[in-house]
Design goal:
The chain has 200 residues and is α+β, with helices and mostly antiparallel strands. The protein is built from 3 helices and 6 strands; from the N terminus they run ββαββββαα. Bound molecules: adenosine-5'-diphosphate, riboflavin and magnesium ion.
Length: 200
């Protein structure tokens, strides 16, 4: 057994996230590095990192936590018909933004571990993130076991930090944090827009 990392379990004040948080990002889930993170019990949903996006240039590399929303299709086992939330479900998440020093990546990645067991993959699904705080810098490790121990501790930090009233989502979790952006209706995509225009 690895030792429990010696760092705080709760991040941020009880009054809720402080500026610049919450930060927003969104995109469709893409394939990642295919390292079998899933087999390690920590699958990460990767989002495209496009250098033309200002946020990814500005935000510092590291591990963050907050809320994710997914617009799962009705064919997915975790799909809930939720008209109030426009088909989106909100889940707690931890994520890494950066170069994964343990793997020495040359491209910057953004990958999200959602704190929920899903019975199936959700590649291609629209994922939105409300990042509520920074947990730590990315690190290199002597072995995979130490990396996994740190990630598991990050999950605990996210869980404990988010279960406070001012950090819980108003839209789904009965809390006070405004997460309306996470559950807003999907924008009509280009194709549909064209069809709508054609009808007028
Ligand atoms: P990849 O290298 O393609 O990112 P992973 O092993 O990291 O592969 O698995 C990521 C995929 O697993 C996600 O894209 C998603 O479809 C699925 N998945 C299932 N459960 C989760 C979860 N709790 N958090 C994130 N992704 C999950
Ligand atoms: N990779 C690193 O190289 N160093 C880290 O400190 C690190 N921390 C992570 C924390 C979290 C919460 C997550 C989801 C990923 C982290 N990663 C880190 C990325 C990790 O190496 C990647 O997801 C692997 O594919 C896991 O096997
Ligand atoms: Mg991944």
């Amino acid at each position: 057994m690895s030792a429990t990392p010696n760092r705080p379990l709760i991040i941020g004040p009880s009054s809720g996230p402080e500026p610049p948080y919450p930060l927003r990002m969104e995109g469709k889930v893409i394939s990642g590095f295919g390292r079998g993170s899933k087999e390690l019990g920590i699958p990460t949903a990767n989002l495209p990192v496009d250098d033309s996006l200002q946020w990814i240039k500005d935000i510092k590399s590291g591990i963050y936590f907050g809320w994710a929303s997914l617009g799962l299709p009705s064919s997915h086992p975790q799909h809930h018909s939720s008209s109030q939330t426009n088909g989106f479900q909100i889940y707690p998440m931890v994520m890494s933004i950066g170069y994964n020093p343990f793997y020495k990546n040359t491209v910057r990645s953004a990958e999200v571990h959602v704190l929920q067991n899903f019975g199936a993959d959700f590649y291609g699904v629209e994922m939105r993130l409300l990042i509520t705080g920074f947990i730590r810098e990315e690190k290199d490790y002597a072995g995979l076991e130490a990396l996994i121990a740190d990630i598991n501790f990050d999950c605990e930090v996210a869980k404990r930090s988010l279960e406070r009233e001012e950090w819980l989502a108003r839209e789904q979790k009965g809390g006070k944090l405004d997460c309306a952006w996470l559950v807003r209706p999907s924008e009509v995509n280009g194709e549909e827009e064209k069809k709508l225009e054609a009808k007028v």
